[in-house]
Design goal:
Maltoporin, Chain A; mainly beta; 5-stranded mixed beta sheet; single chain; 684 residues; 35 strands; globular
């Protein structure tokens, strides 16, 4: 089966379409839980999975508990079309169909995170997967509802910090986890209560971990052919130094519920201190190995990121009755974000982001066959990188967008049309301000072929304005160990996306998605081959690009409580000049066997990832690998309203050397080796 990876890209696509893959998650009670049973809030009409006009994945309940990890990308990397761009174990950004950073919008309950994750691959997201009630992912352009930087997809992380439904009494849960690969210890908990009208929620997570263990050596020796044998022997073997991490996140919220809706407030505070693997920032010192070894011994060259964020949220909903306008929802958030990049004991660069973001949406209808949404979104940011090595100027950034989505139903057909207009201003200190007007439109048709199957066809034209770092970056970034140059002549990107999807739900589960995304004026960070200040120079450049591929899922229940499933996805990304878009996810195929009953859940999964021989100009190609994972849990009833869950997870059980093609650090920092994670969860 795995020999298929030697075939051309479209041959693999055809194979994946033929065999498909696994249901995104399994229910906690042992029965399969399909997307049609889950309301996806990323749609303004609160639609279920079988009526969405855009491919979506949802993690919730105990399935989310089993997959949730230290980073968002790691939590989602088993979902079709989604991978993780690591920068050491402290960072894992979600990659959707080969796109990430400024093209994938990560949200905390429908508002942006307000962090600096999109400006550099070494910056972590501030959302906490272990505190989430659900994580929703939209694949493909979602700019119409969520804005300029959702051209590649959306990841929406939802918790209950502002209770959207009344609560009577008190309930909660507490969880502890231990992971062997880095001796990570994690505690998670929440408690919430209410009296029908007033509701409140308190949650928190704290986690510490040591350096990550790996199979073999950290360095990929083909990158440094001039290294002699003595230096190779001196390299770290079996671990990646400076990859320890300490993080916490807490939030407190309350809401008042009345007959027509609710309004609530929340405050959250988070912190994350993590190291950058030292291999990423030692190559410019190769000429003096003695000095390098001495610095390594005293830890002076180690770079760490010390991040803090405080966030305030207001959220409300008001039902307007049975007239033309039925409901209005509104959200307002303010974030005060800062992180320091520490070089030894000195602060090299300090990033700050003070951001306001608000959105309001009106739902309306005209009979049973027509409903729609009208909305506005506004964001104001004061963004800065401060210090001797700051490479992004302090900038005032303002975005204003207006959008509409309209849905028409006729018999077995559902037609959805959308429009969005957005204006962006970027005003950097000491440089000429830039303004952009972008326009996006989409259309999708959803055809119910039978009660068990449907076909979806979608077209989207979405525009994205350049980000501040893409326009104005100029200087060294030592955490990333590059000299970065912006380009103030950049034009907005235009994505022309074509989507075809088929879904069947009967004795088996089948989902197939095909996509072709032509991006005009695609912006990417190119390795120029030059050096400045002994660092490789990366220049933001622009040319047309094409992303195309497929995702497929197949789940086949058999006997009682058992299911076998297949998973497959592939994406190919090429620039107009015939070269490859850098750091694209290789083709993947997976086979899983799962069991679930009233008390037990277990899954054995094998994933084969093909080699990536299209790494991009000047980038390192990586080999394929086979990864084996196992999870098992046992639920115990310990009281009338109480339950205890014991779970065990084995990751990378074959101890494969995994070089992540999405990672800037694939030559220096492979993914963690064999790991066992043990956890206990008590709920009441």
């Amino acid at each position: 089966m795995f020999s298929a990876f030697s075939t051309p890209a479209w041959g693999r696509t055809a194979l994946f379409v033929a065999i498909a893959s696994v249901s995104p998650f399994a229910a906690a009670d042992g029965e399969r839980s399909d997307l049609e049973e889950v309301v996806v809030t990323a749609s303004p009409f609160a639609k279920t999975g079988d009526t969405l006009t855009q491919p979506a994945s949802v993690l919730t309940g105990e399935a989310l508990r089993r997959k949730a990890a230290a980073t968002l990308g790691e939590s989602l990397q088993q979902e079709p079309g989604i991978s993780s761009a690591s920068f050491g174990p402290g960072v894992g950004a979600p990659v959707i169909r080969g796109q990430s950073a400024n093209r994938v919008k990560v949200m905390q309950d429908h508002l942006g995170t307000g962090d600096a994750a999109s400006s550099s691959p070494d910056h972590a997201n501030t959302v906490e997967p272990l505190l989430a009630d659900r994580i929703e992912v939209l694949r493909g352009p979602a700019t119409l509802r969520y804005g300029n930087n959702a051209i590649g997809g959306v990841v929406n992380v939802l918790d209950n910090r502002i209770p959207a439904a009344p609560i009577d009494g008190i309930e909660g849960a507490a969880e502890v986890r231990y992971q062997s690969v880095n001796e990570q210890q994690t505690g998670v908990g929440f408690i919430q209560g209410g009296n029908g009208q007033w509701a409140w929620h308190l949650n928190g997570v704290t986690s510490t971990g040591k350096d990550v263990r790996i199979p073999g050596e950290a360095h990929h020796h083909s990158v440094h052919e001039e290294e002699d044998e003595a230096e190779a022997e001196a390299e770290a073997h079996g671990l990646i130094e400076n990859t320890d991490r300490e993080a916490h996140s807490y939030s407190l919220g309350t809401a008042f519920h009345y007959d027509a809706g609710f309004i609530g407030l929340a405050v959250a505070q988070s912190g994350n201190n993590y190291g950058i693997p030292p291999g990423a920032h030692e190559h410019h010192e190769e000429d003096d190995h003695a000095d390098h070894d001495e610095e390594h011994e005293h830890g002076e060259e180690f770079i760490r990121i010390d991040m803090e964020q405080t966030r305030y949220d207001l959220k409300g909903e008001h039902n307007l009755g049975d007239g033309w306008a039925s409901k209005i929802t509104y959200r307002l958030g303010y974030t005060d974000y800062e992180h320091a990049e520490l070089e030894g004991h000195e602060v090299g660069t300090r990033f700050t982001n003070k951001a306001w973001e608000g959105r309001a949406e009106l739902i309306h209808s005209a009979g049973d066959q027509h409903r729609g949404a009208l909305g506005m979104q506004y964001q104001l940011r004061d963004y800065a990188a401060i210090g001797d090595e700051a490479f992004i100027p302090r900038s005032d950034i303002e975005n204003l967008g207006a959008f509409t989505l309209q849905e028409y139903t006729s018999g077995q057909w559902v037609l959805e049309l959308g429009l969005r207009a957005e204006h962006a201003d970027i005003a950097p200190d000491g440089l000429k301000a830039q303004s952009f007007n972008t326009f996006s439109a989409s259309g999708a048709a959803h055809w119910h072929l039978t009660d068990e199957s449907h076909l979806t066809f979608g077209l989207a034209r979405a525009e994205r304005a350049p980000a501040v770092e893409e326009l104005f970056a100029n200087g060294p970034h030592l955490a990333e160990q590059n000299y970065i140059l912006g380009n103030d002549d950049l034009s907005p990107e235009t994505s022309n996306n074509l989507e075809l999807a088929y879904h069947y739900e009967g004795p088996l589960h089948l989902q197939v998605n095909l996509f072709n995304n032509q991006i005009d004026n695609f912006i990417y960070k190119a390795n120029t081959g030059a050096e400045l200040e002994e660092l490789p120079v990366y220049q933001f450049s622009q040319q047309d690009a094409r992303f195309y591929g497929a995702e497929a899922t197949l789940g086949l229940p058999f006997a009682q409580h058992w299911e076998i499933s297949l998973t497959g996805d592939t994406v190919r990304a090429e620039l107009d000049d015939g070269t490859d878009v850098p750091r694209i996810t290789p083709a993947r195929i997976g086979l899983a066997l799962s069991y679930g009953d009233e008390h037990w859940n277990a899954e054995l999964r094998t994933t084969q990832v093909s080699e990536q021989r299209h790494p991009g100009e000047g980038e390192l190609a990586v080999d394929g690998y086979t990864r084996v994972d196992l999870s098992a849990s046992r639920a115990f009833d310990v009281g009338a309203e109480q339950a205890l869950l014991v779970f065990l997870r084995g990751n990378n059980l074959a101890n494969a050397e995994i070089r992540n093609a999405n990672s800037f650090l694939r030559a220096y920092a492979p993914e963690p080796g064999r790991s066992l994670e043990l956890g206990l969860r008590f709920s009441f």
